[in-house]
């Protein structure tokens, strides 16, 4: 029904997370019918980001600059390091507003099946950062999934052998969360990690 | 938090319908973290579609070809014309499988506030098509919205003055509903029950 270029645009929109065939079609027609300006801007932004965005030389987060804004900030305490899986996790922890150290962004987790090992996560670079910044404390904030836990365990062993104080972000009941809707595994961890009042 | 190029990518993704700030961020990071190939394909598809997709010389639907596949099909009855708002509406009516004529795609509806008048909808071109193809019957299938009804009325007057048998798609289509979301059976009934205007 649609001409080849429109079909190709619909197909290529499906690489976006959460976009199925119906919304890809809707998006393609919307752009071609009445959003040429936005589509042009998007094509340019994609091309430029693909060409120029790489890794921060400090924390390995995504950036087109040599150093990201956090690594470049002299006010941040370089001896404290929070290790996360993704740039979105950095944003989440920053929004809490209580951490004044730096980050190390793995961009993933250990996943041998997908060929993601210590090298792909930049763990050799993590060693350099730890040495160079004389890191004293590392907080591992990988996701609470099987892969996240395995990655945490691997990194913890690597860092503990260097006499660094390594901790894991606490697991428990979310603030404002109702107990009855929290899953059993989380509750078990929350009970285990209880604090004396 | 994010570097300028990543911010720009997030912003530019928001031109897509249904994409808010949170999903734009998710999309941008997803593409940069692990979908370079898809992002590259999308950038290319956008650029190419913007450069080359124009209007069908027959029905004015979106296509990069001179004539769309329906206008180029000699089996279709050129004396019967179905007038719709968008390319998605053509797809919807084709899925009903009962209409063997051709289409005329307005790419919109009359909307004086947005500066969309008869000229923007190609109604002068509609006159040419009607003359050139000796159209005998026109079925107006604009949306069942206030604007769609007003557009229908305007076009009906224009065509009736040319002694064409003009009908409106039957209101099996839910009032206020958008044509592209209506199922094929309902559309088949709506076509069958069309009323002379
Ligand atoms: Zn950095
Ligand atoms: Zn056509």
Automatic annotation (TrEMBL), chains A, B:
CDD domains: TOPRIM_recR
GO BP terms in the entry: DNA recombination; DNA repair
KW Metal-binding (keyword) present: yes
Molecular function in Gene Ontology: DNA binding; zinc ion binding
SUPFAM superfamilies in alphabetical order: Recombination protein RecR
Domain of life: Bacteria
Entries under SMART domains matching the protein: TOPRIM
Zn finger intervals (C4-type): 56-71
Domain Toprim residues, every copy: 79-174
Keywords per UniProt: DNA damage, DNA recombination, DNA repair, Metal-binding, Zinc, Zinc-finger
Membership in a protein family: Belongs to the RecR family.
Record's function text: May play a role in DNA repair. It seems to be involved in an RecBC-independent recombinational process of DNA repair. It may act with RecF and RecO.
Protein name: Recombination protein RecR
GN (gene name): recR
